[in-house]
Amino acid sequence: MKAVLATDLSAASEATIENETCLECLGRIGIEEMHLVTVIPSNVHAGMPGIDFEKRRRKAIKNYERVIERAGFDVETHVVRGTPHRRIRGIGETIGASLTVVGSRGKSPLENRVIGSTARNLSRTTETPLLVNRIEREADDPSVVRQHLFQRMLYATDFSENAERAFEAFSYLRHATQETTLVHVETPKDPGLSADNDPETQLAELADQLEKWGIETQIEVRQGDPADEILAVEEAVDPTTILVGSRGHSRLRRLLLGSVSEELVAQANGNVMLVPPS
After folding, report:
1. What is the pTM assigned to this prediction?
2. Which of 24, 103, 252, 254 is the most buried (most CB within 10 A)?
3. Range list of β-strands (E), the chain
4. Would you tell me which CATH number, out of the four given (3.40.50.1820, 3.40.50.620, 1.10.606.20, 3.40.640.10), belongs to the domain 152-275?
């Protein structure tokens, strides 16, 4: 499997790359080849006096390349120019990446201008699964908030086709997952489920699948605003990563669930993994 690891060469993204536990987790789920990508924004002019941005970035990214090689991955580096989320997404599609990893500090717009906005834009547009690796929000020398990326998962589902696709990610995540909480949030606008498909029954069926792989599983059904309730469950069970599909029941609900996944990317305490439609 191949992964794109995006970096703006800041202290925040350095924390993702230099954390050995995070790299080990990526190796355990089957990532063998890492494509390290940094993008010079198109509004940064190559001809600015006394500054060769591309040369500086290539020199800086070499240090990260050595770290990832020492962790046992094959590595390719890409220093490109353009709009960050578009170039990152394009490289992922070109190489056939199974995962894109990007660091983000989360809520604060002042701390979140470059790679944070890139994470949000990728959450809206990505064509491959996206892992937003949460970095400490207020630290001069930040580190990752959750080192074990996939050890304790929170899987949120609306039982849509795309949510099912997100669940299929456990086929490889299970090699690094020990515990999972499965949650469904009922809303007033929910199209409803038949008596034969009540949420607890469906979650129990999913739990059975995970427990066959030796993953300890619990289920929760809640009522209310999906993003608020998912974040409340995160607060209660302290997962390392929230796993969710980035689209909902139909095109009419795309904006609704799209806004939920975007809220999770911005507000979750830990990591968020989004799985887009096929």
Report:
1. 0.84
2. 103
3. 2-6, 33-41, 74-82, 99-104, 130-134, 152-156, 179-186, 216-223, 241-245, 271-275
4. 3.40.50.620
